[in-house]
Design brief:
This protein is an alpha+beta fold. The chain folds into 3 domains: 5-179, Alpha-Beta Complex (Spore Coat Polysaccharide Biosynthesis Protein SpsA, Chain A), CATH 3.90.550; 187-418, Alpha-Beta Complex (Spore Coat Polysaccharide Biosynthesis Protein SpsA, Chain A); 425-526 and 533-607, no CATH class. It has 17 helices and 23 strands. Helix 9 packs across helix 16 (604-639). It is globular. It is an enzyme of class 2 (transferase). One of its GO terms (molecular function) is glycosyltransferase activity.
């Protein structure tokens, strides 16, 4: 069933079925990703519908066998065994289709060979499972189930299990479909890259070999902003020839993610062919079925909708970064819904994770995989010109302000390098975190003076300074000054700010990373503390005296002279909390990915001057908030317009 539409079986009418979601298996038979496709953890379950207790949904299962995968759509079920497709990629997220689309019922078609049983289940928003229907099958058979979406108002999934008789059976293919007269929309895929030609080439190859994606693809546009070109990568010429006119490479100067994705959006709109543009990060592995699902979902939505895909950990492939992400508009802080981050499907499958059966509505979706209708782009413009950070969240908030929702769709996903091995809040990106969060707040906060944002910002300033992280704090002060200047120079700053920030690093030892463990003197403390330094945060009861003591140390007390000759401690990244580092005069601190370390050195003079400057700038921002907010909101249509962005593209042609 590879096509987008297929004639409904056993009917004489001319009605067509639109395939919404195909049952798929991993191309490479990767055991690490297999739990996302098949759930063998059949001894676990959701909540019992009557008493709310945990229950097993099926009989105890056995380990998965990658060798039983026969093709992208086919798998062998061993004699007497059971396979459940109640998995992340193959269960049907019924509540999302119920809430956002015009689809009222779905048709499950299961093609099998051999003797056994097909059992269909559903769950509710609490994770309670119910057996819907079962059919005995024999020989080569196509089994069809008509399934209503009516009871899925708050949550719930459909899925099916296969139970083989004594001779075993085989799944030939299966899909979830709906009767529809809507034509399939077409899509432009947009990738923005900076010096990741190997990843990009693999993405192109994945698209090139997926016939279903090629059927709805207008163009795959790679915006190459680096000096290691995708077109120079070995094997590019062959895949480019195979893609033909469906692949286009655009070379431009480095305008960051927002500049690259704005170019993807702009080109798709100018070409005028595509119903959607899907933005994809450059350092990903894409499950191409998710592209088809996102387009099918968007086609069926009641109104134009941004459809996002989830992000799994590239190096721990069964771990989902976040199931839904929201913006706390009082603090103006982004992040996953509580309890929905870093879920490992290898440890706890979909059926046994009751929290994943509720429908969770997102405020935004990361641009690692995000489908945007070109109609929305024409109405609200392109990305905010902010280089990186907050461009994706701001865009969804902007869309929502005129009535367009963002849906993070389960079953559409990519694998991406995890945030666990990054801490970009302490490098040059600290500037963009601070500036762009404040700009987004000025644009979209419903609260006077941005709610709690200025207090949140000041708290972060204090944490950086007490942690001896003077470089990111310098970057944050630069960000504050630039916010106060207004929106007029945002485009102008795109190509210039990152080189400026990187050049500043040499002035701050906390930003100079050395990879050689022997590059620093041995740690030495003349008078070690009587008790080991605790990594626990201060208790609420001790917070006030602790804070007074810490402020005195950081701003007034002199630095131990010997701490300039030798670091007092070597601190692991996971222990480098501000309440730990604030107790020291110097420390060698490892970076998040473990590839190097920096020497942090306390400087009371820097603390006093930076703290004072932060207070002055925030007082100015507080006083001018309403005026600045009005300026940014008034300028938004202009700075995100096709015309403004085209001028920036023309001024930064790349090499």
């Amino acid at each position: 069933m590879p096509g987008i539409t297929a004639a409904r079986p056993d009917e004489d009418s001319d009605a067509e079925l639109r395939v919404l979601q195909r049952v798929v298996l991993p191309n490479d038979k990767d055991l690490d990703t297999l739990p996302l496709y098949i759930d063998s953890d059949t001894g676990k379950g959701g909540l019992d519908a009557e008493n709310g207790r945990k229950q097993a949904l099926t009989a105890p299962g056995r380990k998965l066998h990658p060798e039983d995968i026969l093709s992208r759509s086919s798998v062998r079920v061993r004699p007497g065994e059971r396979l459940s497709f109640g998995s992340y990629f193959n269960a049907f997220p019924a509540s999302y289709w119920r809430r956002w689309t015009t689809v009222e019922s779905v048709i499950l078609r299961v093609g099998t060979v051999g003797e056994g049983t097909v059992v269909v289940y559903k769950s509710n928003a609490r994770g309670a499972a119910q057996r819907v229907e079962s059919r005995q099958v024999t020989g080569t058979e196509s089994t069809v189930f008509d399934l209503t979406l009516a009871p899925f108002g708050d949550g719930g999934w459909y899925w099916f299990d296969l139970i083989a008789d004594s001779d075993g059976m085989q799944l030939d293919s299966a899909d979830w479909s709906a009767v529809s007269d809507k034509p399939a929309g077409s899509v432009t895929l947009g990738v923005t890259t900076f010096n990741r030609p190997d990843y990009c080439l693999n993405t192109i190859k994945a698209i090139q070999t997926d016939d279903g994606v090629r059927e709805i693809l207008d163009e795959l546009i790679i915006v190459d902003q680096g000096n290691q070109k995708v077109s120079d990568e070995a094997g590019f010429d062959d895949v480019a020839k195979a893609m033909g006119s469906q692949l286009r490479i655009i070379v431009q100067g480095n305008l960051g993610g927002s500049g690259g994705f704005a170019r993807n959006m702009s080109e798709a709109v100018k070409e005028g062919r595509s119903d959607y543009v899907m933005l994809l990060d450059d350092d990903i592995i894409v499950e191409t079925e998710g592209i088809l699902r996102a387009v099918a979902f968007a086609d069926m939505c009641r109104k134009p909708t941004i459809v996002g895909g989830h992000m799994f950990d590239m190096y721990n492939k069964s771990v989902l970064n976040a199931y839904a992400e929201v913006v706390n508009q009082y603090k103006f802080r982004w992040g996953p819904v509580d309890g929905l981050a870093n879920h490992d499907f290898a440890l706890e499958g979909l059926r046994s994770s009751s929290i994943l059966h509720r429908r969770w509505d997102a405020d935004y979706n990361g641009w690692w995989m995000c489908l945007i209708p070109t109609r929305i782009i024409r109405e609200i413009g392109l990305s905010l010109p902010v280089f990186i950070k907050w461009d994706d969240a701001e865009y969804s908030l902007r869309a929502r302000s005129v009535g367009y929702a963002t849906v993070s769709l389960p079953g559409a996903a990519v694998w991406h390098v995890s945030w666990a091995d990054k801490d970009d809040s302490v490098d040059w990106q600290a500037y963009f975190h601070e500036r762009n969060r404040l700009i987004a707040t000025l644009l979209h906060s419903p609260y006077a003076k941005g709610g709690r944002i200025l207090r949140e910002s000041m708290n972060t300033d204090v944490k950086h300074l007490f942690s001896m992280q003077y470089y990111p704090q310098k970057a944050r002060l630069m960000a504050l000054r630039d916010v106060l200047q207004g929106p007029e120079k945002l485009h102008e700053s795109l190509p210039a700010m990152m080189p400026k920030l990187r050049a500043l690093r040499s002035e701050y030892s906390d930003s100079v990373v050395k990879q050689d463990p022997g590059a620093f003197p041995d740690p030495h403390m003349r008078k070690p503390p009587k008790k080991p330094i605790s990594t626990k945060s201060p208790s609420l009861a001790s917070l006030v005296p602790w804070a007074a003591k810490t402020i005195l140390k950081q701003t007034v007390l002199p630095v131990a002279p010997e701490s300039r000759e030798n670091p007092q401690l070597v601190v692991a990244n996971q222990d480098s909390k501000w309440w730990v580092l604030s107790k020291l005069d110097s420390a060698v601190v490892s970076n998040a990915d473990g590839t190097g370390a920096s020497w942090y050195q306390r400087d009371p003079k820097k603390v006093r001057s930076m703290l004072a400057e932060a207070a002055v700038l925030k007082a100015q921002l507080f006083a001018e908030w309403e005026q600045l907010s009005a300026r940014y909101r008034e300028a938004l249509p202009e700075i995100t317009s096709m015309e403004s962005w085209q001028r920036t593209f023309d001024e930064n042609p790349g090499k």
